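Box 3.1. Reading complex inputs
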Amino acid sequence: MIVRRFSVAVLAATLAVGACKGDPPPPPPPAPPMANQDSLQAYRDSVAQAEADARAAAARVAAERAEEAARTRAMAAARATLEAKVLFDYDVATIRSDQEALLRQKADILRASPTVQLRIAGHADERGSTEYNLALGNRRAAVIRDFLIGFGLAESRFSIVSFGEQQPAMTGSGEAAWAQNRRGEFQITAGANAINAGN
Amino acid sequence: MTKVWKGGLVCAVYAFGLPAVGLVTVATPAQAQDRDSIPGVSLGLVYENQLQPTLAMQPFTGRFGGAGLAAEVEAIMGRDLRNSDRFEVMDSLPAGLVGDVLDYRLWDRLGAVMLVTGQVEGTGDGFILILELHDVVYGQVTERGRFRLPDAADPDYRMAVHRASDDIVRWATGAPGMAATRIAFTMTDADYNSEVYVIDSDGENLTRLTNFRSITNSPAWSPDGSKLAYSSFKTGLPRIYQLDLATGAEWTLPDVRGEGDYMAPSYSPDGQTLAFSILGNARSGVFTYNIARECCLTSLSGGQHYDLSPTYSPDGLKMAFNTNRFGDNVPQIMVMPAGGGDAETLSPYEYGGRGYYTSPDWSPVGDLVAFHGAVRRGTHHILVADMANDGRRLLQLTWEGNNEDPSWAPDGRHIVFVGERRWGFGLFVVDVASGRLRPIVSGRKVGLPDWSPPIGASN
């Protein structure tokens, strides 16, 4: 009895592994040495149980993978949201109303991801003086920081820097380029692996 | 019996008196202003016709091995004297036409009132340049000097010739020249790296000083010309450095105030103090640091608003700077005591009005502050405020393209600035007295020029 159970367990394990890996079906089981109804039924039950266990395990793994993928996708989306640039109007350092939603999303993510820290870099378009544009870029970065702090986030999670007009996102002159160049950019300086999407 | 050419000089000197030339009184409110014009500046300004003494150069000669250099030295000096904008320099005449013997009557008939003669003598260890300034009308030598020149291959060779040119200017006008100077500026490459370069005042010897492959800004000369301060992102965050030009050693301004953008350094006239801005801190604004003793950070101005681009008056008592305290879109120039205190607006700001004025530079000899500004978006011009009239009289020096970042030459008369034209960017020099303009670097993305003090032999 002990021997038979052992062989059945081995068989079940073989089936489970087979099911799990999707290998070709196992060879037909050898006929049990003593073929009475009880033992045959027990044998069938154990095979069915093993197959069910294998299916459940596979489903669990698939679910875990899907969950992991969803989590990765959400994290990537959250990261992209955190890093998305915020645009400004000409010669001012005030948050544009059409940029507020993005900043709120950033604030949600930051609240759900307490170890994440950001460097906010302010930029200006090429018009105006080089040194003053450094100041304007710094003002823009500071205004973004202050907006985020307004959602209850700690100031220590932000640092700011300005590149003025000196690192345009888009080359060329004209409003199309300038509009993309008047911006705040975001670099994750800590906690990049612990981004939670928030709500 | 007055000397005729001295009379010419008197006229010229009168014309050089800056406040008498080209400065325009502030327009009264009743006067209709073009809505794009800068308040205080009249459009259609015409410079007073200046009588410049005509200066000729007898073809230079040489001996003891100096003959080979004579023509080149004469050419360098001729260009320097033209660039001084203090003479009408006659085109040089071939030696065969002029002859070896000095003939005052010939030069008088050609219209010259001053004549420069030069002789280059080899010494076995470099050369001696013997220069004479002549009064053509009276047929006599008025000044004479001997100048040591190194070999033409020596890096100081051209600067030594420029120093001789500046002595001619001083002999003839009593005023300092600016030939023996350099201009530091930034040049940006296709990857948006900007490095510090220097170029001689005549547009020769373009030399790159930094190779950080980063953004480096705002080069500023120390008053003795031996060092350059600048701000650079080379570590990732903008900090201020000082380069010793003789040794190449670089000193870093310590993080005296932690995080923030450290930018726009400027030396006090005694060279002891560096003024600069720190932005993005709890208290942004203008700070000073005693670089001689490496101590004593002082906060001069700022707070919630940003003050930047400080520049000292030549007596070291005042400081002009740029501020956003009237609004981010209307930066203005203000003046405060050099130790901090109440500031007064220098640029022509009217409350609630438009106008964008930045990048002040205080003249090293005169009571003039240059800056650039615009009322109309995108078109900036170089302006000069007359401090003797509380800055209420303004001279507009440029009328085309976009013009930024003026810096005074040590003669207090020329300004270098960045000009943007249809063909691209360039560094231009403008003579404040005559309005004459010349490009010295063309077609490159240049920025933030700073004109050196006179470069002495030791530099």
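In summary: Chain B has a mean pLDDT of 87.
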